[in-house]
Amino acid sequence: MRRLTKKKALTLVKELDAFPKVPESYVESTASGGTVSLIAFTLMAVLAFLEFFVYRSTWMKYEYEVDTDFSSKLRINVDITVAMRCQYVGADVLDLAETMVASDGLKYEPVHFELPPQYRLWHMTLLHIQERLRVEHSLQDVLFKSAIKAAPPVMTQNEDSGTSLTACRIHGHMYVNKVAGNFHITVGKSIPHPRGHAHLAALVSHDSYNFSHRIDHLSFGEAVPGLINPLDGTEKVAPDANHMFQYFITIVPTKLNTYKISADTHQYSVTERERAINHAAGSHGVSGIFMKYDISSLMVKVSEHHMPLWQFLIRLCGIIGGIFSTTGIIHGIVGFFVDIICCRFQVGVYRQLSTDPEPDVQNNTEALVPTEDLPQ
Predict the structure, then answer these.
(1) Closest by alpha carbon to 259, among 52, 3, 59?
(2) What is the pLDDT of residues 258-278, one digit of tens each?
(3) How far apart are CA 296 and CA 253, in angstroms?
(4) Alpha carbon 15 to its chain's center
């Protein structure tokens, strides 16, 4: 009876333990559990590492609003080479109000039309970039964020005499009114006229006409690093002397705001057309290069954005907590089905243990009676 009393006392002390105990099944170490834990922690580390790169990256946001600025001037940046002598061609701008803009900011430089090998390589690279921009429009966002200065090498003066230089490079900039207009390069120098303007084309022989040209650069507004314009690198060869090249341009005011640059510039889209001038066939007009531009009433705001820190921390917690919970659920479900398939549930053993009678302590008291007291 003394042993029974000590056992009950020990059981009572164990039951009075106020500290919570973790069930043994929760801390049971198994090979499958260790494997799942290793996979889960590896996946957490990889996804957290990739999420850090997402946090470091930025994206471009485009917003549209009405352009209310009509009083400012529009800057036109030009760098065009025409396969004619400089004394035979003239360039100017005539806007929608029949106002002729002085082209004092343009320079006429005699050059060769064919490019040297190093400049031809740059020209081919620019054409390849233009081709990729037409296919992958998101490439322009990369150029905006990188702010790469996409200017061609500086063309130096040719050492040959002016008589051997058969082409003319027209480069510089002009300030025009913010209305639709026509920038054109045609035969003869322009002269002012009360009703517009005129060109002295009568002094130039038709045999000298050759409006094959190369547009190294044409932009509107402030020059922005990373902005490649649609007409940059365009090269056209005229099949005959009397030929007209037309470019219909739609200009869109753009405010660019990135972590590297902030500028007010203009983007544009263009539609090209060319035809031969033959009055006998009904194709009338004037030989030359005509760029008719119009300004859109909408303005585009392009800004670079970055993920905030609090959003990164929330996404990181979601990744870690989601993987931890998901792997635990999957491990439990897979283990349950494996136990069913492999018949590991020993239901009969548990049933036998539950039906066995508990030992009666009172019946065992006979063993405690001394043998001396037993009847002979």
Answers:
(1) 59
(2) 888 888 889 999 999 988 877
(3) 7
(4) 66
Specify the amino acid at residue 3.
Answer: R
List the end-to-end C-alpha distance of the chain, in Å, as a whole number. 26
H or E segment and range at residue 355: helix 347-355
Beta pairing, strands 181-187 & 167-177: unpaired
Residue 1 pLDDT greater than 70, yes or no: no
For the chain, domain boundaries: 24-57+307-352, 62-305
> Which of these ranges, 167-176, 233-242, 272-281, 291-300, has the smallest mean pLDDT?
272-281
User: Is the pLDDT assigned to residue 51 strictly greater than 80?
Assistant: yes
The pLDDT, as a whole number, for residue 100 is 67
Question: Which two three-digit tokens encode residue 329?
Answer: 């659920």
Q: What is the mean pLDDT of residues 57-84?
A: 88
> What is the DSSP code string of 164-197?
G--EEEEEEEEEEESS-EEEEEEES-EEEETTEE
**DSSP β-ladder status, 288-295 and 243-257:** parallel
Our CA angle for 299, 176, 84, nearest 5°, is 115
Helix (H) or strand (E) holding 80: strand 73-82
pTM: 0.68
Which of left, alpha, beta for 36 (phi over 0: left; psi -120 to 50: alpha)? Answer: alpha
Q: Cα 69–74–79 angle (5° rounding)?
A: 155
Compute CA distances 55 → 147, 150, 309, 369, whole Å: 21, 28, 8, 82
For the segment 24-41, the average pLDDT, to the nearest whole number, is 73
* Tokens found for residue 148: 């790469």
pLDDT at 171: 92
Per-residue 3-state assignment (H helix, E strand, C coil) for 110-129: EECCCCCHHHHHHHHHHHHH
Share of the chain above pLDDT 90, in %: 15
75-107 exposure pattern, b = at least 16 Cβ within 10 A, e = fewer: bbbbbbbbbbbbebbbbbbbbeeeebbebeebe
- What is the C-alpha separation between 237 and 215, in angstroms, rounded? 12
What angle is formed at CA 256 by the lines to CA 253 and CA 261, rounded to 5 degrees? 140
